[in-house]
Design brief:
By secondary structure, the chain is of the alpha/beta class. About 35% of the residues lie in helices and about 15% in strands. The chain is built from eight helices and eight strands; from the N terminus they run E-H-E-H-E-H-E-H-E-E-E-H-H-E-H-H. The strands form two sheets. A six-stranded mixed β-sheet has the order 3-2-1-4-8-5, with helices on both faces. Strands 6-7 form a two-stranded antiparallel sheet. Strand 1, helix 1 and strand 2 form a beta-alpha-beta unit.
């Protein structure tokens, strides 16, 4: 399938006992994206924060779909539930971005990652990120540099040290469909972003 900068983007957000200040900042950074998100799919992993998420999304004019599990879920399961729901409601040509409850996105994040996804045979993109403290003060200009991540890791490299951060990813339906269901977690723990990358 050919992708263009007009493909709808569905943002998968995992929410667990959020700091309301950070959650507001994150959703406020999604709303003015230069490539607007079509919908936020919020997985309410704590089963109780749905009203807070709904109020903030309504304030910023963000179209919202919520998934409230029967019991609390951890992050890997939360992103799996969110991606499953997004596949059900998104059009065939949709793209999928992952998002934590305490990120803040640059205004051109979706535009820049979507542009990279237009390259033939590219099915998932990710980027570097600045590292900030709870108050938003920059601690380091590059997570990749700080953590000494490899720029072009092999599969073996990824298994030894994941270099893909979920909050920076944008991916296609084909990758999401291939990745579901996520593997059961045991002694070898596959975070959602590592699994999608693999």
């Amino acid at each position: 399938m050919h992708f263009s900068t007009r493909n709808p983007i569905f943002v998968i957000l995992a929410v667990y006992l959020p700091n309301p200040v950070h959650l507001r900042a994150q959703l406020a950074s999604i709303a003015p994206q230069s490539y607007p998100a079509q919908k936020v799919v919020a997985v309410i992993a704590d089963t109780t924060s749905d009203q807070l998420v709904a109020e903030i999304c309504a304030h910023h004019g963000l179209d919202l779909a919520t998934v409230v599990p029967a019991e609390q879920t951890e992050s890997v399961q939360s992103f799996e539930l969110g991606l499953r729901r997004a596949l059900e409601i998104a059009p065939e040509n949709a793209l999928f971005a992952l998002c934590d409850q305490d990120d803040v996105w640059a205004v051109d994040k979706l535009k820049r990652t979507a542009a990279a996804l237009v390259v033939p045979d590219v099915a998932m993109v990710h980027s570097d990120a600045e590292v900030v403290d709870a108050g938003g003060q920059r601690l380091h200009h590059s997570m990749h540099h700080l953590e000494r991540r490899k720029r072009s890791p092999s599969i073996r490299d990824l298994l030894l040290k994941n270099t893909v951060t979920g909050m920076t990813t944008l991916t296609t339906r084909a990758v999401v469909q291939a990745a579901l269901p996520f593997p059961k977690q045991s002694a070898l723990y596959f975070h959602h972003d590592l699994w999608l990358a693999l």
